[in-house]
Amino acid sequence: MVSRLNPYLTFNGDARQAMEFYKEVFGGSLNLHTYGQFGQADAPNADKIMHGMLETTSGFTLMGADNPPGTEAGQGQPFSVSLSGDDDAELRGYWEKLSAGGSVSVPLEKQMWGDVFGMCTDRFGVPWMVNIGRTES
User: Fold this and answer.
1) DSSP string of 52-64?
2) Taxonomically, which superkingdom (predicted)?
C-alpha cells in the first residue's frame, strides 16, 4: 500500500452519526470499529468509535473517532492529519522530521491493534498521527 495523507476528525461521542452523515454526503465505503472491539468490551465507551474510515469512489479518505477514554470533551484539536501506510522506513522518516522540535503525545510504537502508531504535534502546532501497518509476509 502506498502511504496516504488525510484528515482525521475527533468527536465528542457522536463519531458514528457524523461518519454516517459524511457517507451520505460523499458515498463510498464506511468501516467503523468500536472501543469494545479492541479489548474494552466492559468499558462505558465500548460502543463508541475508536476508528472509522470512509473511502469514496472519488478518491477521498476521511477518518474519525470519538475522544479516547479519559479525555475531556473538547480537549485538544478537533482534527489531526493522518499519515498511514506500510512502508516502515518512509513513515518513520516522516515521524522523525514532524516530531523534531514539537511534542510527542503517543510515542511511535506497536499498539493493541498490531500496527505501529504515534501522535505528535509539530513545531507549528499541527497535530499528526502516523500509523505503520503490518506487512503481509
Assistant:
1) EEEE-TTS-EEEE
2) Bacteria
Residues 110 and 124 occupy one common structural domain: yes
CA dist 61 and 2 (Å) reads 13
Looking up cell 454526503 gives 25
Looking up cell 484539536 gives 77
Give this prediction's pTM.
0.75
- What's the chain's average pLDDT? 89
Range of the domain at 111: 79-137
Model pLDDT, residue 136: 61
Which residues fall within 8 angstroms of residue 98, CB to CB, at 6 or more apart? 120, 122, 128, 130
Residues 71 and 12 in one domain: yes
The tens digit of pLDDT for each residue in 33-49 reads 999 998 777 878 889 99
Note whether 72 and 84 are same-domain residues: no
Cell of 131: 500509523
Question: For residues 30 and 22, what is the distance between their CA atoms, to the nearest angstrom?
Answer: 9
